[in-house]
Amino acid sequence: MEEGEGIKVILLGEVGVGKTNLINVLFGMDFKENVASTSGADCFEGELKYQEKSYKYFLWDTAGQEIYRAINKIFIRDAKIAIIVYAIDNQHSFEEVDFWINYVKENKGEDKYLIALVANKSDLYEKQMVMDEEGQESAKKHGIDFLTTSAKTDAESFREFVNNLIIKYINLTEGKETNNDAKKDSIKINKGDKNDGQNKKKCC
Ligand code: GDP
Ligand code: MG
Fold first, then answer.
1. How far is the CA of 155 from the centre of ligand 1 (A)?
2. Residue 61 CA, closest ligand 1 atom number
């Protein structure tokens, strides 16, 4: 992994699970009750400092295409990290997790990449249909990392999860084991000011 080279991260999953909001809060923008569904693909750019190097990364939102499951295969092929999202109050979104994981695997080449699973909307525990254990079990089955979070109330845990995935990917490509102590000291995320959306770019 070369310093300066961008690491592409893609969020996948059913419509309405909170992908756009997770990306928004990751970049310091406010959680929104209503997000206009856009077409095409949105991209945010961030930077992460790790072991005195600076790594650029791009977060791709699939912006409406998930309705038709017509995610541009080029996005998937180029992504180094694919985060599959479901919502704990939406059984169907969990049932489709295997579809999305297979979709990524089918469209990847030989390159090294990571897949992770995120259970969103943990604040809606009163409407919970998918238990945490089920998510954990699925992640274990696929051998991937798992996080339960809420774009609404717990942006920090998602931010930390994404940072850790990026570091894991860097270490994977450099053939190193992840060192947890080094991790804590050196992460610095570059996020946009609240609400300004300046890090949001139409295409990276
Ligand atoms: P996407 O279609 O996967 O991009 O989902 P959106 O980010 O557009 O969110 C769909 C709906 O779920 C919106 O009304 C959001 O406000 C809501 N939503 C997203 N994340 C959360 C969350 O963590 N908690 C709650 N309560 N609602 C959420
Ligand atoms: Mg969206």
1. 13
2. 4
